[in-house]
């Protein structure tokens, strides 16, 4: 049995403003109609012996992750919530502990949720190639056959080949060394030698074997994970671990914590159109382009542009005579850079963080488990939002200390609770919530509910919410 362990905890800062801290790249449909998280699961459909996945994600992303799994009819074994990011080694330890707690010493297929793999069939064959080795106790990683010298990736030096025959004529080898990201000249040497592959960050091993090696090399990390997991509790479709115990866990990657130290590491070569989409330059490479090398998304009109990535998110974007540029437009931000500086977008995010600007965290449209809201206008003492509530869903029962709200129904039926009063409003009707009144908004119908909310008061932020009852456990 193979249990996919999907790591969905990254922030994707190099893809800002498409990727935001509270809505990162793995939750976006960057290449194709499905999100990257959905693609990660869908590409495994051709793999035999597959069990429901364990998804490890940030607590803030939990409802979005659950909804995206539901949209592709994927029933997860669990959605395991990390109260704080500690890198990949502790995340996988929690997944292994969960597997063993259910009396399953299964093979864990560890996959980041933000990779592009164009050839799913070849990918599944590479996994199948590694199964027999993993069942014997080895820890496998998948090394990407390098198509070019790349200084943005770590490398794996292949050692002695294993004797067992494998599919497609490729050879599973022992890992001689993990190598840090090289400079350009060293990367050229690695590719010419044929002895090196890119480090993909994907792994296959038995749950107990991973924990054995973690105990051997990082006992403090495993002890902290065991304590955090021991005090786990179920919450709707999610599994929460003890935040205080997990906070004491050392942070490290699987590579540093285990794979670079173990003498049981093997590497399976993989040539399947892989990309980690770590920047807009790599996103440009991973997407379909026109005859001039342009990747165009949304309402874009270009004249004599070449080798550029042009993305219109909310309005018309026009360009004339561009070559090798990245132009990203969203409802609240615009990014313009060259492809060779695309890795440096994270510096913009760092500056936004230093200035405490919300654009690093959220898009203008903010998804919630009940629907979404979008800021439309604001000024001194007022804020206007568009709120959509999905059929059958409801917001928390709440009150505000500093603001009043005026709701105008645009579409659908709104059931509104205000203190002891319950009323229903149709399109073109409105309702007022004074400061301090206990209230709830819900959609009792079968169609989407859409309202315009006008907030007035001295503090107009999400901090001014006192939840008395919440269906989603927030």
How would you sum up this structure, described in words?
The structure is a single chain. The protein has 474 residues and is α/β, with parallel strands linked by helices. It starts with a strand and ends in a 5-residue tail after the last strand. The mean pLDDT is 92.
**Radius of gyration from the CA trace?**
25 Å
Biggest sheet features: 6 strands, antiparallel
Number of strands: 30
Strand line-up across the major sheet: 20-21-22-29-24-27
Question: What class, by secondary structure content?
Answer: alpha/beta
In terms of DSSP E residues, the strand content is 25-35%
Low-confidence stretches: none
Write the layout of secondary structure elements.
Blueprint: E1 2-8, H1 36-42, E2 54-58, H2 62-71, E3 78-82, H3 88-101, E4 107-112, E5 116-117, H4 120-135, E6 139-144, E7 155-161, E8 173-179, H5 184-193, E9 196-206, H6 207-217, H7 219-230, E10 233-235, E11 238-240, H8 243-247, H9 254-259, E12 265-270, E13 274-275, H10 280-286, E14 295-297, E15 300-303, E16 309-312, E17 317-320, E18 325-329, E19 334-338, H11 345-354, E20 365-368, E21 371-379, E22 382-389, E23 397-399, E24 403-411, E25 414-418, E26 421-425, E27 430-433, E28 439-442, E29 449-457, E30 466-469
Parallel strand pairs: 1-2, 1-4, 2-3, 3-11, 6-12, 14-16, 15-17, 16-18
Antiparallel strand pairs: 4-9, 5-13, 6-9, 7-8, 7-9, 8-12, 10-11, 18-19, 20-21, 21-22, 22-29, 23-30, 24-27, 24-29, 25-26, 25-28
Short description:
This protein is an alpha/beta fold and 474 residues long. It contains eleven helices and 30 strands.
């Amino acid at each position: 049995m193979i249990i996919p362990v999907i790591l969905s905890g990254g922030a994707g800062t190099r893809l800002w403003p498409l990727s935001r801290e509270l809505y990162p790249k793995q939750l976006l449909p960057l290449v194709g109609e499905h999100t990257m998280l959905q693609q990660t699961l869908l590409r495994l459909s051709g793999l035999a012996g597959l069990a429901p996945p364990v998804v490890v994600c940030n607590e803030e992303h939990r409802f979005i992750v659950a909804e995206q799994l539901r949209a592709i009819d994927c029933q997860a074994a669990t959605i395991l919530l990390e109260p704080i990011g500690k890198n990949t080694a502790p995340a996988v330890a929690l997944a292994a502990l969960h597997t063993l707690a259910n009396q399953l010493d299964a093979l864990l297929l560890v996959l980041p949720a933000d990779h592009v793999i164009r050839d799913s069939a070849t990918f599944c064959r590479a996994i199948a190639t590694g199964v027999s080795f993993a069942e014997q106790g080895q820890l496998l990683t998948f090394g990407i056959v390098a198509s070019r010298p790349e200084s943005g990736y770590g490398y794996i030096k292949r050692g002695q080949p294993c004797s067992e025959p494998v599919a497609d004529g490729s050879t599973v080898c022992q890992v001689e060394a993990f190598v840090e990201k090289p400079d350009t000249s060293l990367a050229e040497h690695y590719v010419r030698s044929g002895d090196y592959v890119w480090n993909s960050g994907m792994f296959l091993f038995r749950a107990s074997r991973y924990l054995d090696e973690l105990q051997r090399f990082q006992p403090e990390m495993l002890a902290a994970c065991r304590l955090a997991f021991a005090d786990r509790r179920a919450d709707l479709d999610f599994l929460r671990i003890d935040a205080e115990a997990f906070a004491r866990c050392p942070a490290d990657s699987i590579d540093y914590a285990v794979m670079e130290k173990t003498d049981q590491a093997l590497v399976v070569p993989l040539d399947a159109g892989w990309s980690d989409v770590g920047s807009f330059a790599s996103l440009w490479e991973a997407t379909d382009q026109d005859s001039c090398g342009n990747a165009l998304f949304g309402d874009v009109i270009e004249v004599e542009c070449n080798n550029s990535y042009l993305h219109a998110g909310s309005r018309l974007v026009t360009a004339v005579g561009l070559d090798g540029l990245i132009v990203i437009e969203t409802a609240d931000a615009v990014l313009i850079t060259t492809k060779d500086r695309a890795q440096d977008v994270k510096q913009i995010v760092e500056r936004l963080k230093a200035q405490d600007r919300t654009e690093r965290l959220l898009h203008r449209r903010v998804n919630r488990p009940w629907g979404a809201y979008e800021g439309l206008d604001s000024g001194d003492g007022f804020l206007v939002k568009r709120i959509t509530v999905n059929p059958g869903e409801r917001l928390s029962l709440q009150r505000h200390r500093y603001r009043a709200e005026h709701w105008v129904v645009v579409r659908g039926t709104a059931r509104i609770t205000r203190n002891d009063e319950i009323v229903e409003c149709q399109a073109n009707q409105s309702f007022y919530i004074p400061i301090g009144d206990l209230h709830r908004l819900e959609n009792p119908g079968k169609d989407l509910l859409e309202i315009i909310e006008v907030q007035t008061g001295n503090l107009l932020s999400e901090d001014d919410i006192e939840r008395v009852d919440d269906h989603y456990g927030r």
